[in-house]
């Protein structure tokens, strides 16, 4: 009996404990469910609150951008995100789609003068940008507009703007934010070349001015590319006034060009080293490379040259190690002579000397450039420029020479020299055994028999050379050369072509005074008859007021106007 009661009580206690545990677990589950529900409600409320804040922030940002656009555009609001595509053009003017023309026209942007645009990179999600790349991702520059012919959804960008927006590599789909802005006219610019040599250019500020004529804007930290013939110089914009981005249209800008930093000097840029009369400079030139020097002829030296008292001697002493050099000389503004463009040259094997005298019509006062070209191998050399006095004959020597002509002479049948008649037989016997006359037409030089085998003539031009010089002569004078304009000629014709016919040759414009590429023939027949180049034909079409009557006359017709209207010669 007691046993059954005990078992019943234990069973009851066990059931009570289980009920309590189930009740406890139920309470725990309900508490956790309430906590989870509360967390979810808090998360939903936080997300909703964040979205409301983001919406408010986006609205404020849009209003701020609208205000900035209105302020920057002075009442014109234009903002587009377009895909950037490159096109080959000069300057900084971009091409926009036709829809942009309509949008800008509706807001009266064309009535406010030249249009300028701010171009910024759009950072794309998923791009692997680091902190070092953050500055590059935020690149901003400015431009003008060339035309509205780009494809819808894209903006065509010239090389200058492209290189400033994408200094390293462009993304697969480059997106650019294009915003209409108004820019102040610039008053000051500080530029720094990325290498030495730019300041050596004759009238380099005029060359820079010519390059800037193709630009509408300048932005701080941009890199400006300036071309001078085949040479290219890059200048970084360090400082601008009155703001960090300016307009360069119809304004006078004070320009400072500072020396390049040591850390930014380029080793591939040509440099003119000064060379004084009487001093020599040592150097090492590799095959296919140039080393450049410069010297000047002042008024005193020129007077001595004109009076035929002195001559200029340019000399290169090279080590005889199987290598060889060439020598080229030119007068500025051609500051970097080469195989195609020069005024004087020497192609002798080994050491060489070039004599400049007043008889050379291109010689005069001014600065000259000297180029040492590595023709073969690596050559160690010494270059010098001397003012040498001309040797003058003495009267006594002249008298002796004239007295010898009175002796009775007979022409040698072998060497064709006139020999005294009393010794002609002995001379002809000796001459026929030891000497031979070159049979080449027009040569007739008398050579020793052992020297005749090394005396050869060029099959193309007929010039006489030592056999060891023929290989260099053929390579220098008769190997076809390709001009950058596409023409293929031999050396002599190439020098003439690049001096007078090449559209890429540099000339001094008679109207603007700048060094510019001549271009092809002028389109106008009258301009061609005047001898104007393509650039001068266009540049001379600008008008200026006549000094006598104030009438606006084209520059290229100003002389005709003075003669026809004012009877001025």
Automatic annotation (TrEMBL):
The keyword Phosphoprotein does not apply. It comes from the Eukaryota. Transmembrane segments: none annotated. Residues 546-566 form the C2H2-type domain. GO terms for biological process: ERAD pathway; ubiquitin-dependent protein catabolic process. GO terms for molecular function: polyubiquitin modification-dependent protein binding. Keywords: Ubl conjugation pathway. Residues 1-46 are annotated as: Disordered. Residues 1-44 have a biased composition (Basic and acidic residues). SUPFAM superfamilies: TRAF domain-like. One of its GO terms (cellular component) is VCP-NPL4-UFD1 AAA ATPase complex. Belongs to the UFD1 family. This is C2H2-type domain-containing protein. It comes from Gossypium schwendimanii (Cotton).
